[in-house]
Amino acid sequence: MKHMTPSLDILTKAARENRDRLTADEEERAKEAMTAKAETEFAHLGGTTEDRVALLMAIDKIEDDDMRAAGFAAIKMPEGMTTETPADGSAEAELDALAKSHQMANPTLTIEAASAAVLQTEDGKRLYAKTLN
Q: What is the C-alpha to C-alpha distance for residues 12 and 19, in angstroms, rounded to an integer?
């Protein structure tokens, strides 16, 4: 009776498949973590959540620790900034509504560009002045 041992090719193939499966699982976990960050810490950035995840994943792949940290620091939400919607009726809420309306009328604009355009209008200037008081 022959002694049956798996060939080296079969073992190598199995090891590669296992490594690929683990890498895919790790990548999925990393993407989930980046999605959570994209929706919270980096929600202030323009684009979709998927756009922000792609950006975060690209920065995360930078090998140099200091450069990677600098990349994340460069796009992190500034201290005191919030993505929360202001209370209804406030000047901030009115500005936000005007910016969203302007963006809907001009779909190629980001919300930031729409907000900047609104601030150039008489209503925008008046409402912005109220936010300073």
A: 10
